[in-house]
Design a protein that fits this description.
Structural class: alpha/beta
CATH class: Alpha Beta
Order of helices and strands: EHEEEHEHEEHEHEH
Number of strands: 9
Largest sheet: 7 strands, parallel
Strand content: 15-25%
Helix content: 25-40%
Number of domains: 1
Number of helices: 6
CATH topology: Rossmann fold
CATH superfamily: NAD(P)-binding Rossmann-like Domain
Distance between the termini: 20 Å
Length: 222
């Protein structure tokens, strides 16, 4: 890897995993600039941050500023927060795919996207199908060229200190703590901290596989 200091783009820096990733990048001397593309401010005054408050559904209009060495896509919503399926698909499918296309267009070296366990473009479940279609079309951007190098993370239930309460996650968290010893590794809860750390390792060192499950995310962190 080059010793030149890098520029990173984060999509979703105000979310749970994205905010943790941002703090890690701010402390990492190998990154000199962090561009944030979001609809709301991360409210961080670090001189390393360059913030772009935009309409995320029109990301393609910002190709001139969407330039970096690595893109971290931490965008994602839930059925509870976004019950409208059209809007849900614009977020969970549209934004990551638009980002990957811009990365290819602008010669960005690496794209790392958080998806979800159960993603399957052939699923009859809308939410799993949407994630699967997103993965398919993001990966397409790396098939016919050297760059970008694309990694898709498929975490199980993500846990951490959120600004919002999610009843389903709280119930599942309690269940898994009690019966965790019965649950296969790939289905166990995973900390947002672990995912953020793995994303940073992927950006610096790469990995032999493109689709990375929760179990493998933990292995990357070590």
């Amino acid at each position: 890897m080059s010793k030149l200091k890098k520029t990173a783009i984060i999509l979703g820096a105000t979310g749970l995993t994205g905010s943790i990733l941002l703090e890690k990048l701010l402390k990492d001397s190998s990154f000199e600039k962090i561009k944030l593309f979001s609809r709301s401010s991360a409210e961080n005054n670090s001189p390393k941050i360059e913030e772009h408050l935009i309409d995320m559904f029109q990301l393609e209009k910002h190709s001139e500023t969407f330039k970096a060495d690595v893109v971290f896509c931490c965008i994602g919503t839930t059925k509870a927060k976004t019950p409208n399926k059209e809007t849900y698909k614009k977020i969970d499918y549209g934004i990551p795919v638009a980002a990957a296309k811009l990365a290819k267009q602008n010669g960005i070296e690496t794209v790392i996207v958080i998806s979800a366990m159960g993603a399957d473009e052939n699923s009859r479940v809308f939410y799993n199908k949407t994630k699967g279609e997103m993965e398919r079309d993001v990966l397409k951007q790396g098939f016919d060229c050297v760059q970008p190098d694309i990694y898709i993370l498929q975490p199980s239930l993500i846990v951490g200190e959120r600004n919002e309460s999610r009843l389903g996650e709280n119930v599942a968290s309690i269940f898994m703590k009690i019966f965790g010893f019965l649950i296969p590794k790939k289905y166990k809860m995973i900390k947002a901290e672990t995912i953020a750390e793995a994303m940073l390792v992927l950006a610096k060192e790469g990995y032999s596989e493109k689709i990375i499950t929760s179990e493998k995310i933990r292995e990357i962190v070590g």
